[in-house]
Design goal:
Layout (H helix, E strand, L loop, with lengths): L1 H8 L4 E7 L8 E2 L5 E2 L1 H13 L2 E7 L2 H6 L8 E5 L8 E3 L4 E9 L17 E5 L3 H9 L4 E5 L2 H9 L5 E5 H10 L4 E2 L5 E10 L3 H16 L2 H8 L7 E2 L8
Parallel strand pairs: 1-4, 1-5, 8-9, 8-10
Antiparallel strand pairs: 2-3, 5-12, 6-12, 7-10, 7-11, 7-12, 7-13
Helix pairs in contact: 1-7
């Protein structure tokens, strides 16, 4: 299987790994040669080592741009949140890590629970086409989603009080609480972003290899070691193992 996987995942002799630079939990810095550093790049490097090839990082500023390029032949694997809309073109592994998505509400807001947010008069600021935006699009029935093409833009909607709620990754919202005295993060999560590894759907052997690799990396403690190495303990969680159905 590994030989077939290598032929599909590294047809040029190099594994081209698409990395979402916008995820500050999975990409935490840059090397001297400008390569991204963090949990996601290290996962890609380990896959390349297993296949016996070099890794080349293909950076994207936003996850939506990474997903859109799935059929363009510019990357072989992509490290990105797994979502049904993206799975139409990308064959995903199970998640290797999870990130809680939560709500930040304005100072003095009457919103007290997650269930209170989905009301007709509530406006939710969110990064357009992020994994948690795709979840909100499927599940929010009454509130209005105010989308921005950048995380900073979504925050400005909240800062300017054009939005009642800021939806985001919980670790990032901790920073916003410090910037907005009196703002509160509601208890609980509305979803957990499933960080996975995908490849274009035409790569059946490659997809099977990635699924097996992720399960082994979780079970062996490798994912947790990477989380610890990059200082993301308590901010990233190792995803649970996939349960095989009889």
């Amino acid at each position: 299987m590994q030989q077939d996987a290598a032929a599909e995942l590294a047809p040029t002799g190099v594994l081209r790994a698409a990395i979402n630079l916008g995820n500050f939990l999975l990409v935490t810095g840059r090397a001297a040669n400008s390569d991204p550093q963090g949990v996601a790049p290290d996962m890609a490097a380990e896959i390349a080592a297993r296949l016996g090839v070099a890794v080349q990082y293909v950076p994207f500023a936003r996850p939506s741009a990474l997903a859109d390029a799935a059929d363009d032949g510019v990357w072989d694997i992509g490290l990105i949140g797994a979502e049904p809309a993206r799975a139409q073109k990308i064959a995903f592994s199970a998640a290797y890590a999870e990130i809680e998505a939560a709500y930040l509400v304005q100072p003095g807001s009457a919103l007290a629970r997650l269930e209170d947010v989905d009301q007709p008069d509530v406006r939710i600021a969110v990064l357009a086409r992020s994994a948690y935006d795709l979840w909100l699009e499927r599940n929010i029935k009454h509130a209005t989603l105010l989308r921005s093409e950048s995380a900073d833009g979504a925050t400005r909607l909240f800062t300017d009080r054009d939005a009642d709620v800021l939806a985001g990754l919980r670790p990032g919202l901790f920073t916003e609480v410090e910037r907005h005295p009196g703002a509160r993060i509601l208890d609980g999560k509305f979803t957990a972003v499933q960080q996975a590894i995908g490849t274009p759907r035409r790569n059946a052997a490659g997809a099977a290899f990635l699924r097996a690799f992720v399960e082994e990396a979780k079970a062996s403690g490798q994912v947790q070691r990477l989380i610890d190495r990059h200082g993301m303990t308590g901010r990233l969680s190792v995803a649970p193992p996939t349960v095989e159905r009889p």
